[in-house]
Amino acid sequence: xxxxxxxxxxxxxxxxxxxxxxGDLSLxxxxxxxxxxxxxxxxxxxxxxxxVAAVVRLCAAAGVxxxxxxxxxxxxxxxxxxxxxxxxxxxxxxxxxxxxxxPENLTVTVEAGCVLQNLQSSMRDAGFLFPLRLGAQxxxxxxGNLATNAxxxxxxxxxxxxxLCLGLEVVTPSGEVWNGLTGLRKDNTGxxxxxxxxxxxxxxxxxxxxxxxxxxxxxxxxxxxxSLASIQEAVALLSLAQRRLGxxxxxxxxxxxxxxxxxxxxxxxxxxxxxxxxxxCNVLLECSSTRSEREALEALLEEAxxxxxxxxxxxxxxxxxxxxxxxxxxQIVLAxxxxxxxxxxxxxxxxxxxxxxxxxxxxxxxxxxxxxRIANFGHLxxxxxxxxxxxxxxxDALAFLQSHEAQIMDLVYRSxxxxxxxxxxxxxxxxxxxxxxxxxxxPTALRLMRAIKDAVDPAQTMNPxxxxxxxxxxxxxxx
Length: 479
Ligand code: FAD
Hints:
Elements: H1 3-14, E1 19-20, H2 26-29, E2 36-37, E3 40-44, H3 49-62, E4 66-69, E5 87-91, E6 98-102, E7 107-111, H4 116-125, E8 128-129, H5 142-147, H6 155-158, H7 161-164, E9 165-171, E10 177-180, H8 193-197, E11 206-213, E12 215-216, E13 220-228, H9 231-245, E14 249-256, H10 257-266, E15 281-289, H11 294-306, E16 312-315, H12 319-339, E17 342-343, E18 346-348, H13 354-368, E19 373-379, E20 384-390, H14 397-418, H15 434-440, H16 443-456, E21 477-478
Parallel strand pairs: 3-5, 4-5
Antiparallel strand pairs: 1-3, 2-21, 6-7, 7-11, 8-12, 9-10, 9-11, 13-15, 13-16, 14-15, 14-19, 17-20, 18-20, 19-20
Bound molecules: flavin-adenine dinucleotide.
């Protein structure tokens, strides 16, 4: 089949207005950070599951591979095409309906192209909480969240996307539809296909809809900002908070000083509490409850003061104040981007080993590459750090990255491995980390993963070269 007849065929399925093969496609071809770009044969935007299945069958017949795409906020280059100009980007934004809310079962069935923030607010209006919360929530979509097993700031209490998902609807690489939209909380009937597709980053099929868990809206959400001498005290405070607040502890974010300095430099309008007092570490702590928990939170902070774990603390007095505190945390990523290129590491470690990891890795980095600056922040409650390395101040940042990026990554990932951690906590593998998977994953696990890929997608048309290497280097261009 020629490229032209494939594009004509796609237009017949979804309507000519929803297929683009010429003009500026950079919105779909370039990743969020603007560092990874490819070239698409076409971008196709189906509106129904049947259309997705027909597109997949047509592409399979033409031998053309597909890159599923949601909000394109992924940070590992999994959602953009390679530079062959032979891949079709299948973007799910038109499939954004909330199909059904089941109030007694506490579930919602929603299509893959629904933007996360829209789901959160629709559920709030209906009197429920959908708890997944992350910095890209205004753009990322439910299908992308499932395909990456997204985490975010509430995992401590509610789990990541895998834990929030009860059922899936998936179009397989051959174009069949698997309707697994069950709202069952128990279903031991063989291999768990849902768990296979969650976190598969578009390499096993296209998620078109999901049945997700809902929760009652908490009666009270309290947010506190706390300063501490070091990450060692932050780990001790986490442990104390878990003992005192139990399941009411919903968020525990750590921010070392340099990330906040970047926010102060690039977003001077942002008020950062107690930034002046020289504390090297700050924590944003959130607890949610079905009853008011202010006394419990204040008692926790008093105890933390008595044990000299914290040097300063404030509890937000209003929702607006709480939102301001969260904004500081969320702006670190944007402030880093404004400061210039940096090397991102989304890592997880046993919480108990984090203080030693932080001290050791900083020593190694500073000895190997003088002048590097470390923006270390993240979801301490989940043992997940965004351990980002900013290039030294001044000089040619891109040239520096070209000569030092691989060295920085190797050093950090080796240290992560030494401390028993993972090189990808929540962002996935994508195209950017396929070689890290080869390097750090147990060979038996890798063999099983390849066997699954070959069984489900024998023609290798679903996002090839992502997660598992396809005969060598990742294909998109890192610029
Ligand atoms: P995309 O980027 O479009 O795609 C991601 C991957 O999923 C690709 O491999 C793609 O092929 C595949 N995919 C997309 N849709 C489908 C589908 N329907 N079926 C099959 N495969 C599909 N992530 C976190 O986990 N926690 C965070 O706290 C967090 N914070 C972030 C903050 C910022 C500012 C940014 C930019 C990103 C952040 N991320 C975070 C990363 C990103 O937002 C998540 O990975 C998100 O889940 C991706 O969703 P998306 O719709 O943008 O997916």
